[in-house]
Design goal:
The chain is α+β, with helices and mostly antiparallel strands. It contains 6 helices and 18 strands. It has helices at residues 8-19, 131-136, 164-172, 177-180, 286-304, 326-337; strands spanning 23-27, 37-41, 44-50, 56-60, 74-75, 81-82, 89-90, 96-98, 115-121, 124-128, 150-154, 159-160, 199-201, 206-216, 229-239, 243-249, 256-266, 269-279. It binds fe (ii) ion. Residues 170, 176, 181, 296, 300 line the site of fe (ii) ion.
């Protein structure tokens, strides 16, 4: 089957639809005071830094004077971004505060850097490129991120060669655990998905559902040559378009959360931030968490990067949907309603 590539117009529509949402661009701890960081979001080159108050600032990574990459510059003692070429300085609102070649002269308000909204939240730096939307919306809620009785770990974000919706659909998919995660929590004996019902919350741009699963328990010894298992009750929430979390409930244990959110670097490049939150009674080292989570992200990556078409088909008459795929259908429909474009599979 030929797979039709996305057109320039479809690519623009994807970026337009994603623009009004908050997306992560870095981990909070990786954006150090006094340093610049070059990041890409929705194919836009951006520069991150921290202002004098330590708040994250984000601007176009291009000096309005001669087009120099500002991320190659430095941050001044008063939290301004200094261009490496002619040493112009810009504050976090984009105002030019210094042109060394024009000492004592007033600076035209036309000399401005394009800046956007940025916040630190739940261990991540979030950016919204749409000014109107930034004032009326917030990043998706990370469960227990600000609860003093809980702690949060933000893992090193892997980068996948895929479209962001492909990654999120995989994170929500319930029917592949026994097939590709059998070395982890996936039970190779169980492929059937227990009944579940996704609920779309239009006002909140969210989809929620709950499901039971008899997971493999790889930390317990095998029983009669078979992997140990234990029942888990999962509660899922997807915050459209590119964030989702899972609450994992095991009887007799504290619940914990796994939160995944995409930085759509471009239409086919996606950085994945994964956070976990645990009650203070539970202790895990970063190494234990990396060992627990990174292998199954890698298992998913190998599948998702080669799915075709590269873009998730949002017209549900494309591809085949089984009763256990209700969540994929709900997710695809919700993205289409938000204006994300679908691309058709080419006939023949
Ligand atoms: Fe998976």
């Amino acid at each position: 089957m030929r797979v039709q590539p996305a057109t320039a117009e479809e690519i623009e529509r994807f970026y337009d639809a994603a623009r009004s949402f908050w997306h992560p661009v870095a981990r909070t701890d990786d954006l150090l005071a006094g340093q610049t960081m070059a990041v890409k979001l929705l194919a836009e080159d951006l520069v991150l830094w921290r202002n004098a108050q330590g708040m994250p600032a984000v601007g176009d990574d291009i000096c309005p004077h001669r087009g120099t990459k500002l991320s190659m510059g430095t941050v001044t003692g008063d939290g301004c971004l200094q261009c490496p070429y002619h040493l112009f300085e810009f504050d976090s609102d984009g105002a030019c505060t210094k042109i060394p070649q024009l000492p004592g002269k007033p600076i035209s308000p036309k000399v401005r850097l394009g800046t956007y909204s940025a916040v630190d939240y739940a261990g991540l730096v979030w950016v919204c490129l749409d000014t109107n939307s930034a004032n009326s919306t917030k990043p998706p809620l990370v469960p227990r991120a600000e609860d003093p009785g809980w702690w949060l770990y933000a893992g090193e974000p892997p980068e996948w060669n895929c479209q962001a919706p492909r990654m999120i659909e995989n994170f929500l998919d319930l029917a592949h655990f026994g097939a590709i995660h059998s070395a982890n929590f996936g039970n190779p004996e169980v492929h059937e998905v227990a009944p579940y019902k996704p609920v779309t919350h239009k006002g909140e741009n969210a989809i929620t559902f709950e499901v039971n699963y008899l997971a493999r328990y790889r930390w317990a010894p095998e029983e009669d040559g078979k992997p140990a298992v234990r029942p888990i009750h999962y509660r899922y929430r997807c915050d459209l378009p590119f964030a989702s979390w899972i609450e994992t409930n095991v009887e007799g244990e504290h619940p914990y959360y796994t939160f995944a959110v995409c930085q759509p670097v471009s239409v086919d490049q996606t950085k994945i931030y994964w956070l976990t939150t645990f009650t203070n009674e539970v202790h895990h080292s970063p190494e234990e968490l990396d060992k627990g989570f990174l292998p199954f992200f890698a298992e998913d990556q190998a599948i998702v990067e080669q799915q075709r078409p590269e873009w998730l088909p949002l017209d549900v008459s494309d591809e085949l949907h089984m009763p256990f795929d209700k969540i994929s259908v709900a997710y695809r429909r919700a993205l289409a309603e938000l204006g994300f474009p679908t691309i058709r599979l080419a006939p023949g």
